[in-house]
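Here is an idea for our session: we take a single protein and study its fold together. Start from the sequence, derive the backbone structure tokens from it, and show both lines together. Once you have written the record down, we can walk along the chain together:
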Amino acid sequence: MQPIKEEFYYPSKEECHTKTEEAYDNWSDSLKTLLKITDSKEDTHKTAKMFVQADSLYRSTRTSMEKTKKVLEQLVDKRNDILSIMEIFKDIQMINTGAEYHK
């Protein structure tokens, strides 16, 4: 019977070194992937938060624009009132000017 050589049962130093490097690379890749997923979750959370903020800003802006529209409509109404009063003043002035001219 031949003696059993140890090299058949135990990996060489090079094989151990290679397998260690492969394991390290695999762990490194796994950690990088986990970090990307974490960054993705954070980015998604930030984006969702920005949408919520944008929605509240939209509502606030819309409310402000509606209020501004009402104020502008009131100003237009007042403008029309002022213009009609100005016409009355012109008529009164013309009557006064005409009355003075005929004296």
About this structure: Residues 13-102 form the longest helix (90 residues). The CA atoms of residues 86 and 92 lie 10 Å apart. The radius of gyration is 44 Å.
